[in-house]
Amino acid sequence: MKVKFLPYQPHCFAFGGFEIQMLSALKALENAGVDVEKMNVWSRDNDYQIVHCWGLDLANYENVKWAKKSGKMVVVTALVGYYEALVEKLKFTISSSFYKERLIKEMVTYIDRFVVLNELQANIIHEHYGVAREKIHVIPNIVDEKFYQIATENTIIADYVLIVGNVCTRKNQLALAKACVLENLQLTIIGGVLRGEEGYGEQLQQIVDNNANITWIKGLKENSAELLDYYKKCSIFALPSFIEQQPISLLEAAVMNKPLLIANKAYGKQKYYQNSYLVDPGSVKSIQDGLRKVINDKSSYLPDQDLLKECKSENVGKAYMEVYQRFNA
After folding, report:
1. What CATH class does 2-142+312-328 carry?
2. 145-309 in CATH: which number?
3. Cut 0.85: pTM above it
4. What does the pLDDT look like over 68-87, one tens digit per residue?
5. How far from chain centre, in Å, is Cα 271?
6. Model pLDDT for residues 188-207, shown as the tens digit of each residue
């Protein structure tokens, strides 16, 4: 059983949590003894059985189609929307008949196994795309073992709020910064500006320049000792994003046993983030009030550490291996 990984886009064009997970899963599978490697798109080597595509969207349409025509088993790790708002559901319905979603529904027929992050996404794949339940597997994101190791160490907590991730409108760092200024809290932002979001980055920079209590570190390597140290010492971790799937930064903070403040969106209600304080991401006041409540009662907003063991690399690697093994059953 030989597996080839195929990304959604070249990593030089866009690189974030999904791409980190792809590489983490590759390493976890290698450690589990699976014969897996990155696909060389220039190679004519056809001696493998499974194509594992990352991303259920149009960029993978031809990849999935031709993989199936070539007699390969096709696995797709899919990020799907939660369709929380009525307008999102309406757009999906219209697109299903005329454009993007119609093609994705056709693409779905070529896929043998789907991997999603949680039960809500499994329901969406089943109900919106008509995929049989037995073809859908729920496997969470991986948290690097370094976070589990350092979580057991004694830590001197510094009094700052932490947010980690690409700086962009979706992740809502600007509103968090404004809330921290109003509440007179220290805030550390870690992350570079996402391409195409330079205007948003300039707005954030203005607030940083005018407020000494905000520190912006424009990028640290994932799982680095310096990044772990910021996680270790923060008093609160916040991520009031408008849209997310299963943010790794939240999982990392949860493993470090930090109180969490998250947007009141579907992604924030996953089991791994239970006990988090939920806020309206469109309201600076809601975020401000939430920060105050979490600071005054940190112990009430701590995650369940037993559930987070599912995100260990060896457990995720084993889960993916079992997906592949089903083809031999």
Report:
1. alpha beta
2. 3.40.50.2000
3. yes
4. 999 999 999 998 877 766 55
5. 14
6. 999 999 989 999 999 999 99
CA-closest candidate to residue 197, choices 16, 18, 19, 58: 16
CA angle 100, 193, 301 (to 5 degrees): 85
What DSSP character marks residue 250? H
Q: What share of the chain is helix, strand, coil (3-state, %, to 5)?
A: 50, 15, 35
Torsion angle of C-alpha atoms 291, 294, 295, 296, degrees rounded to 10: 120
Domain boundaries, the chain: 2-142+312-328, 145-309
Separation of alpha carbons 198 and 209, rounded Å = 16
Residues 105/96, Cβ–Cβ less than 8 Å: yes
Domains 2-142+312-328 and 145-309 share a fold: yes
In angstroms, rounded to a whole number, what is the distance separating the alpha carbons of residues 81 and 83?
6
In sequence order, the β-bridge partners of residue 36 are: 3
